[in-house]
Design goal:
4 helices
């Protein structure tokens, strides 16, 4: 039976959500540890993003988009640069309202995740 584009997207977004949960726990754990150790949130987000990129590249590529093409890493890094800037901007906005960096980062998880899925689908794994 032939699947419609909507059915494929629904399966991908569900897989993306599950893998994003794993990746988020990993990345947020690193972020929280770095904040706890006294780093500024911009550096903590940067380091946790860099550390998580290779792990995320493989998990999203293989488990979500069914791709093991290492040549897509540069596009993936480009997407993460955009996601990083979006994440920092959001945390900065919440900081201005005296919301802790820990909580602000948790609030940003959903919009950051959605942005990441859309950008990865459109620009990294667009042929898949």
């Amino acid at each position: 039976m032939k699947q419609t584009l909507l059915q494929i997207l629904n399966k991908q977004i569900v897989r993306f959500g599950l893998i994003a949960g794993l990746n988020t726990l990993f990345g947020y754990g690193i972020f929280a540890l770095l904040i706890y150790s006294g780093l500024h949130y911009t550096l903590a987000v940067f380091i946790s993003t860099v550390v998580g990129v290779l792990f995320n590249f493989k998990t999203y590529g293989i488990l979500v988009f069914k791709s093991s093409k290492n040549s897509l890493i540069f596009r993936f890094i480009g997407v993460y640069a955009i996601v990083y800037l979006f994440n920092i901007s959001g945390i900065c906005v919440f900081e201005r309202f005296a919301i802790s960096n820990y909580f602000a980062a948790m609030i940003m998880l959903v919009p950051v995740g959605l942005l990441s899925f859309v950008l990865n689908k459109l620009f990294v794994y667009k042929t898949i």
